Amino acid sequence: MVYRQLANYQTMKLTYEPVIGLEIHGELLTNSKMFCSCSADYASAPEPNVNICPTCTGLPGAMPTVNKKATELAALVGLALNCSINKHNTFARKNYYYPDLPKGYQISQYELPIAEKGWLDVIDSSAPSEAEAQSKRIRVRRVHIEEDTAKLAHEKNYALVDFNRAGVPLLEIVSEPDMRSVEAALDYATKIRAILRYLGVNSGDMEKGVLRFEANISVRPIGSDELRTRTEIKNLNSFRALVRASQYEIERQIKIYEDGSEVMQETLGWDDVRGVTTSQRSKEDAHDYRYFPEPDLPPLQLSDAWIDSIRKQLPELPEAKTARFVKDFELKQSEARFLTSEKSLADYFERVLSISKSPAKTIHSWIAGEFMRYLNDSGLSVDDAALAPETLAKLIDMVTDKTIGASAGKTVLVELFKNGGDPAQIVKEKNLLQMTDVNAIQEIVTKILNDNPKEVDEYNAGKETLFQWFMGQVARATKGKADPNTAKELMTKGLKERKK
Question: Are 220 and 226 in contact (CB under 8 A)?
């Protein structure tokens, strides 16, 4: 069954609100798999089915053992999400059959996860303005450890199974159904990804499938407290897919209720090409998986000392860093959130700031503008940028102190990205020093005004858009090297003096 695109959503949504909960699955960055010593680096495997053993392929008699590093990383995430760590937590068998599940069950955590009862604050950006955006606390129900499945490759008449991924440590973060807009769900997912990357437990590379979302969605009349029948959209591997699939499913369910029908509890897939959800199967409840304690793994017993040692590993997390940037550097909330969206970007900004004499807002403007534009156009990350913070700081200071103009600064930045070097030397070689001599600029302004009497008269008659044309003539005559503020002041004065 395929659910087609719907119309009139803007009218329908006025009387309904969505109820959204997210399940986020993230592979943990460990050397070995969750319950065996096979390599977890399946992406680098030379061919299918080489990083395997009797345990991760589910052969009879194989005995699992718990990956200590994965347990530490899971606890670290739980603490970062303000969860309580269960000192006594257990593994269970989640029974279901699918070709990518070699044992016919998945070792997971159910009744006693490693962490639970946490929270994360999000911003609902669906508000009309940033000032009106509301902060909302989203409860985190649980953080638990499990193992990833194998990977299926579907051909025309058959499917191939690669078990290199089977058994890779997987972390599941389950929220309560506390989100009331797609925008809030997007902010929650974005912040979870940032936290995982700050902690170094997941690469966040969603194109490679190491981080996946599952959205549980229902709708209800605004003002109601009921929890209506929900559907679950599986395996969303991008923020764009999360947003589009959630919006579509909200529309679909509203239309069902408007037509007097009932929503079926089911598991859905998302067809990103057609922009539709597709029915996969009726939604399972916990009893359908026949959970029971994993007989081959004893409960994990975590001491207070061990938990405290994990707590000490917590870095400054994105929200705390954002608050500090706003307070200490007088940045806007949106500016600070951009800089702290990636730890490497925040670290780069702070390094430039510690060296530069320019204000924090100026440095933010350069990084958020020309710096990121070049990286995005080149398909590079901050970590890949071969531009030292010290070099960028020197360039920004040259613009700030008017050694060169902003346009020249952009030219130098591109040269630095492409070929490296010293900003001062590049400025000298390309003759980019800014013209600050007032008398020299005055001569150029006077000549332009004398040579263009018709345009002067039109400007003074009310055609003020010509001012930018005059400034363009100055830039052309000086090859963009005239101090723009001085040129603007002299041009304004000259035009006024010629007003009849």
Answer: yes
